Amino acid sequence: DGMNILFIVVDDLRPVLGCYGDKLVKSPNIDQLASQSIVFSNAYAQQALCAPSRVSFLTGRRPDTTRLYDFYSYWRVHAGNYSTMPQYFKENGYVTLSVGKVFHPGVSSNHSDDYPYSWSIPPFHPSTEKYENDKTCRGKDGKLYANLVCPVDVTEMPKGTLPDIQSTEEAIRLLKVMKARKQKFFLAVGYHKPHIPLRYPQEFLKLYPLEDIPLAPDPWVPKKLPSVAYNPWTDIRRRDDVQALNVSFPYGPLPEEFQRQIRQSYYAAVSYVDVQVGLLLNALDNVGLSNNTMIVFTADHGWSLGEHGEWAKYSNFDVATRVPLMFYVPGVTTSSVSQGMGVFPYLDPFSHPAGSAPQGQSKTVVELVSLFPTLAELAGLQVPPACPEVSFHVALCTEGTSIVHHFNASEEKLQEGEEGCGDTAGCFSEEPAALSQYPRPADAPQWNSDKPKLKDIRIMGYSMRTVDYRYTVWVQFNPKNFSANFEHVHAGELYLMEADPNQDYNIYNNTSHGWFFKKLLG
Q1: Which residues contact 33 (CB under 8 A, 6 or more apart)?
Q2: Torsion sign across C-alpha atoms 426, 427, 430, 434
Q3: 506/253 Cα distance (integer angstroms)
Q4: What's the Cα-to-Cα distance from 456 to each of 55, 66, 226, rounded to whole Å?
Q5: What pLDDT is recorded for position 342?
Q6: Which of 388, 406, 424 is the last residue of a domain?
Q7: 458, 482 in Cβ contact below 8 A?
Q8: Percent of the chain with pLDDT over 70
Q9: Do 384 and 479 belong to one domain?
Q10: Residues 401 and 453 occupy one common structural domain
Q11: Whether residue 116 sits in one domain with residue 51
Q12: Active-site positions?
């Protein structure tokens, strides 16, 4: 017995969701899930890049331990033979299933999505995935292009469908099979959108009239942003529509009208995914599994929508590292459901008004590396032990910590007026921190700054986020022996969240930061 697990991971989704307080987006189905879940409003990825982030949270190890900062190595060969979260569930009697983009495909998951270690049957990939970057976007001239902004008529698409639609259909089919066979399952479903290209059914544009779309609150490159911290968004520059704008490298900026179009299409793609999630959760209801299936909903990292004059991921800012994270656990986050009552009726974003508030919300800062121990604890399995300082030789351990004890929001009262709060350090010292990192090939933005290959990495930006601040140091890094030299700091950033929620005013150079530095090294 025990609970089934439905693990939903969305590619490049920052928390632009109604349940996270976004006023523009239409995300009624994810909001409905949130209304039955505990929602973490301060969850962060360990690196704002698909493959490193996914390998990190699926193994429960940080990028310095998986040794994956790019796309080009398989951790079992290159770092250590680490057990993964799905592998652990498989070894504990679950049927483990992968649909869509869960592991990053290619070398980093051994060209097999880590099958057969992680999955009971070979992972499913939608057959239309291969057309993602083809010229399928109709331009104003009626010709087809490989654009960034790409609303499409689905009937004109190859096979008359899109990858995420196919993934939803396959996931629903597997739910029915599991129900019929009465098998306990761990089903991971990875949606592709809103990853670029922003290719989605064109009717979703109707939800977002262009005149309602604002620019980013801070669409300029901050004066005190170190050049090493800036990501020059080379991937979107390669798309036909962006290339035609002939924007200067590296700082741009994109024309305002086009900035609005990107933001509009990102929101439209989020609503398209919301519909897929709605159909999937409604199917869980219909096969009668919503009472004994826990649901995790998250993303691999965020995506900058013009903030700091930046687009895409590839940075240590919140817009790139912060992710949605929620857990639906029947009987824990909700009172158990009476038979025959649906928990997740499908909500049409075109007719359904704004979403509902979360069941419970935690502002505690948490990390995706904690997913593995958290899910193990929720499922009643033995929680993998904490990793020793050096763990390349240890197959099963985690560098995260279970966050189940934060599910009871009443514990969230911070101890006010504790001793030692005269100095900042005393106030800040015990609060949880999320660590993220990003590699760079050079101090100034260049063609490979966004995605340097391991051999080209010369600097690593280590970033620490607490409720109160984000502190980042960019230090010398040697890719031959994977060592960071904290004696050699190239640049630093410090943002105080209360005064500067958008992280625009770097006060690193006018603050003594020895204490932050010690805590980061801690």
Answers
A1: 277, 281, 295, 297, 326, 328, 344
A2: negative
A3: 21
A4: 21, 18, 20
A5: 86
A6: 406
A7: no
A8: 93
A9: no
A10: no
A11: yes
A12: 50, 104
| Same domain flag for 162 and 209 | yes
Query: pLDDT tens digit string along 32-78?
Result: 999 999 999 999 999 999 999 999 999 999 999 999 999 999 999 99
| Residue 195 tokens, joined | 């990853």
What own/partner pairs with CB < 8 Å and gap ≥ 24 does 474-481 have? 474/226, 474/228, 474/229, 474/440, 477/439, 479/454, 479/455
Residues 6+ apart with CB under 8 A from 243: 237
Angle between helices 371-378 and 50-59 (to 10 degrees): 40
The structure's pTM equals 0.96
Residue 432 near residue 364, CB atoms below 8 Å: yes
Total length of the chain: 522
Total domain count, the chain? 2
Contact between 219 and 119 under an 8 Å Cβ cutoff? The reply is: no
Provide the pLDDT for residue 513. Answer: 81
**Residue 392 in domain:** yes
Q: Is the pLDDT of residue 522 over 50?
A: yes
In this prediction, residue 419 carries a pLDDT of 36
Residues 357 and 235 in one domain: yes
Q: Containing domain of residue 397, as a range?
A: 4-406
Average pLDDT for 92-102: 98
pLDDT at 418: 35
Q: Is 420 domain-assigned? A: no
